Amino acid sequence: MNLLRRTTRRYPGLGPDKTTVEFVRVPLSRRIEFSSAPRAAAAVVLICALAGSLSSCGVRLDSAPPAIASPPPSEVMRAETVTSAEQIASAARSLQGDPMAAQAGGAALLTSMEAGSSQHMERLGGIWTPPPRPTDSASADVDSTPAPEAATPAESLILLVDAFTQARADSAHAADADAAKLLVSIALWRASAAYQLGPFATHGDGSLPVALPTGGVDLTALGLATFDDIDDLIRGVDAAAFGYEVLAARSTDESQRTSWVTRADDLRDQAQVLAVAAGVDGTGSDPRSAVYDISGLIEADALNSIVAMESSLATLWINADVAPALRPLTVDAALASILLAHQVAPLAGLDSPAGVLPGLTMATAP
Questions:
Q1: What is the pLDDT of residue 76?
Q2: Looking at beta carbons, which pairs linking 51-58 to residues 24 or more positions away fall under 8 Å?
Q3: Cβ 210 vs Cβ 190: under 8 Å
């Protein structure tokens, strides 16, 4: 294909006004050669400028965004505890529409359960979510997670027991002592909640869908352990034994007296094992005394004294400075004291200052 180009040519000898106009054929290949070069150069300049501006804003054109770093085990554990707390609060909220809520004390229990577990979520710091990442699908931003089904009392009880087991085990792997104590306290709250929910979750024959945690003190495990500074725990356990001995001596009820003497003997054994494991038994550093101040026990009602002693023991076990591997044992020991107090008095409200974090307070908790 050719193009016509207009040109003017002057012929010598014909005079200044003797010119002719001719049209010369120009091959198309030559037109492209002359006209495309400037535009190509301009395109190159524009692309370079655009690439420079994107680079200055932190956008890489030559590679995908860097991968999000995997969280450490302590963060994974914390997130799991938050997730289970969220599930407990959601289950309690769902049960407000269950016939359980119409039973005596049912609605109040569910309200306190939701509030208490929500406070745990707040104390733990909530759930961390990664920043949004580039996706190839426009529907990636749509949340396809199905809505949770309404829980039953039995399912919620199983959830509480499983969450207790999780927090108890995780307390041995917490990042530091403060985080471990928080997990211990949350585990005990979940056990307490399970005991309070239990009467609403029985089968037709009166049985429960899951066994409730019972706690206890593993003297063998404690005897094999090594402790550095547990003077407060040793002295507190021994003092409680002395308190039970006094209560037994003052009681006129044979059955009651036998029960309290048995508890005193158990506590004496615990104090002895702890003192030996801590290396203070029979030394000048032994924190135990022959007698303790019992004026408060004498003045108070016997049952109130038991609640006070067992609550104090639970607090001592929760806050004891022990090796991480021993944290689950402190959960069991504290739970045993909480349940003994429960035999003579109702458990603390799940959203009350004393009940939301057993052994700790919202002001002093980590």
A1: 85
A2: none
A3: no
Three-state DSSP class for residue 57: coil
- Cα distance between residue 27 and residue 75, in whole Å: 73
pTM: 0.77
CB-CB contact of 248 with 260 (8 Å): yes
8 Å CB contact between 325 and 228: no
Nearest to 270 by CA among 313, 323, 328, 324: 313
Of 118, 143, 109, the C-alpha closest to 346 is 109
Amino acid letter at 19? T
Describe the chain by its helix, strand, coil percentages, rounded to 5.
60, 5, 35
Residue 270's Cβ-side half-sphere holds a number of Cα atoms within 13 Å equal to: 29
SS3 21: strand
Supply φ then ψ for residue 190, to 5 degrees: -65, -35
Specify the higher pLDDT residue, 21 or 313.
Answer: 313
Q: Which residues contact 3 (CB under 8 A, 6 or more apart)?
A: 25, 26, 28, 31
Q: What's the average model confidence in pLDDT over 112-132? A: 86
Reference 332, options 209, 164, 85; nearest CA is: 164
Q: Read off the pLDDT of residues 124-139 as tens digits, 9 standing for 90 and up.
A: 987 766 666 665 454 4
pLDDT tops 70 at residue 26: no
Burial (0-12, 13-18, 19+ Cβ within 10 Å), 107: middle
Tokens of 286: 């032994």
Spell out the residues 6+ positions from residue 261 whose beta carbon is closer than 8 angstroms to its own: 244, 245, 248
First to last CA, the chain: 85
Return the closest-CA partner of residue 98 out of 87, 86, 114, 110. 110
* 191: pLDDT strictly greater than 70: yes
Residue 91 tokens, joined: 């289950």
Looking at residue 299, its pLDDT comes to 81
